[in-house]
């Protein structure tokens, strides 16, 4: 095994850049495969071996792998979140769940004015917004070395975990917007349903459970993924 | 017909078995290990390996670990608890298939006979 020269490494990077991939996970895995393989061959066989690798990792194969990975990650995040939610209802975690629900219920009973109920409703959404900012920061930090290595890739490099997580973060925010503005079409006093304490508490509990479970998914995935 | 067509259906079992024997492995290492064990008779194609690894990861059979190696990032795969359970199930499934195949090819064949 030998150390590849800077020129050889640049050739490998150029070869991968031609595939115009955006998934950082796929790019880093292919790059590692190329380097690990080429390190086993002498300098005079480098070009030939690189061409052989390019024939294996074709444009269409890499893109198909990228799209399959995205699909698998989306499925994986959904499954993990559902698993986390189910765990909250297990005997070992029930104290944790009851604690959260008790806090939400207590805060809800304290809410008297319309403004306080609105604060209650939007508190889990604020949590999601904060999580989005933290996720963006951590993602930038982890993805930066790969982006720097593959500068001029043609498309923005991002983690395959980023889109499905962002979508899940945006979903309750969109839902909350819809709940607020959609009834406005039919009712003059559109907020009356939302501002009923029982409805507000139920919605807040659902949003809180969703936000906490998503945060836990991020915590689990951040140990192994580029997010 | 190439070996590749024959091993396609057993690729997941091969990956799980290798990871059971080795604590953690990366993609290229898996291809090289198979080549080494079979003295070059079986070559796992990259076209099949990575999608299989990603699928096993999404199914919760494998977990990954990212490590910095010589200015690049390497992704190591290892078995999860579910993956460890799945290895024995997949192995007995494959062994039973090979046994049945053997019986079809050679009706005189008895399990345990060389």
From TrEMBL, chain A:
The chain crosses the membrane at residues 94-113, 119-140, 161-182, 194-213. Keywords: Membrane, Transmembrane, Transmembrane helix. It comes from the Bacteria. This is Uncharacterized protein. It comes from Arthrospiribacter ruber. The lineage of its organism: Bacteria, Pseudomonadati, Bacteroidota, Cytophagia, Cytophagales.
Automatic annotation (TrEMBL), chain B:
The keyword Metal-binding does not apply. Pfam families: PadR (PF03551). Residues 15-87 form the Transcription regulator PadR N-terminal domain. It comes from the Bacteria. The keyword DNA-binding applies. Coiled coil: none annotated. One of its GO terms (molecular function) is DNA binding. Keywords: DNA-binding. PANTHER family: PADR-FAMILY TRANSCRIPTIONAL REGULATOR, TRANSCRIPTIONAL REGULATOR RV3488. This is DNA-binding transcriptional regulator, PadR family.
